[in-house]
Amino acid sequence: MNAGIFKPLKFRSFRSLFGAQIFSDLGNWLDLITLQVIVAYHWGLDEMAIAAVIIALGLPWVIIGPFASVFVDRLPKKQMMVICLFLRILFVGGLFFAPNLYVLLIFVFLKGTVAGIYDPARQSMIRFTIPDDHLPEAVTLSQLSSNTMKIMGPALGGGIIALFGAKSPFLFEAVGFFIAILLLLTLPNMDEQETNAKNKSKNKNRDNGHFWKELLDGIKHISYTPLLKSSVILSSVAFFIIFLYDGLFVFIAQNLGFTEGNFGLLISALGLGSVSGSLLMGNWTHWKRKPLHLMSSAFLFSGSLIITIGLGSIGIVNLPQFGWVIGAFFLGFMSSGESAPYGFVLQSETPKHMMGRVSAVATSLQTFSMLIAPAAGSLLAKWIGVSIVLIGAGGATCLLGTIVLIFIARNDVQEKHFQA
Fold first, then answer.
1. SS3 (DSSP) at 185
2. What domains are defined for the chain?
3. Which of 133, 280, 311, 387 could pair covalently with 317 via S-S, beta carbons 3.0-4.6 A apart?
């Protein structure tokens, strides 16, 4: 990663927006481990309960995100973001005091809904805080925060649980959202009058058909751009495989001998590996010429690690806990070889004016895969056991990587694209 990516931070408005994003992104993921620990360890519930939590987390991003990405440009974004953060603090309080799974699921869904509205507003707000010639760096930096917090949030949550107790991450999360509000309040009042005037003039001729046309434009762009379409499909399938066993990982950890106290160590190793991989991807950029090659190769390596962990959970492979922590580190490391190329393709293959819609549609497709996978994983776990599900997921990951490598070798998709 070169220093150019940090150039947008010299603009005060963008610094405020980016700082708020860091705390917001962290809040999206900080309580992921907390929810699983409460459900599995404290309430003693089974795989179906974990699956229900994950579905409640992701459903708003599917049903809210794509539609919000069209409407958000017609609303005052700074005020909308502040209101969303206040609501998220309230909903985190609801999670803290939730007495049972049903109340917990309601607040999980509400929190996800507000996050699904906040994120498109943040994406759109970038254009009001940065000159156009710095926009590519700003968007890349923004995406780096989002991807990094997906890694660091659960890891940090596991560490906080080990130090302060199962529900303590909710308190840290609420404080983080409050800091994000303070940062957003330092944003100057953006001069959106000209933009709003243009929108109003367009709105006179705007009807429901126009709304659907804007939404469909984002879908069509993905469909008509081969490299982008391949990356979105590949990442969506990968997300399905990952979340097939993700909700079961806490039970795998139990089989490997990890307790409530050191479960966070395993998750922290995953996070540390992912951050290390992201730093490598940022400094070694030759993969940008062949991003799909790197994604599929990473699938092969990570799939092999997943199979090994699955074999360990049924006693075929025996390692000390430190060995499994090292394995989790490399599993996280390989995940960067999957996410970084996808982020690069999404940015480089999408026009700036369509970034919100295209990213929202892509996220919706990925999240839909993530939603149906936990239910399938929990049903399979009841039928054949969590260890066999993990082994099968690892095998599917290896197969996916092999198929893609064969496909791109035969069709030479990326070389033709970058030579054009």
1. helix
2. 1-206 (1.20.1250.20), 224-420 (1.20.1250.20)
3. 311
Tens digit of each residue's pLDDT (9 = 90 or more) over 92-119: 999 999 999 999 999 999 998 888 888 8
Total-model pTM: 0.68
Pick the closest to residue 13 from 178, 136, 184, 139 (CA basis): 184
Q: How far apart are CA 269 and CA 259, in angstroms?
A: 15
| HSE toward the beta carbon, residue 128, CA cutoff 13 A | 21
Give the closest residue to 19 by CA, choosing from 153, 141, 192, 112. 141
Q: For residue 361, give both structure tokens.
A: 């549609």
Compute φ and ψ for 100, nearest 5 degrees: -155, 175
**What letters, b where the CB count within 10 A reaches 16 and e where it falls short, cover 23-42?**
bbbbbbbbbbbbbbbbbbbe
List alpha helices for 130-248, DSSP H: 135-164, 168-185, 193-203, 208-224, 226-246
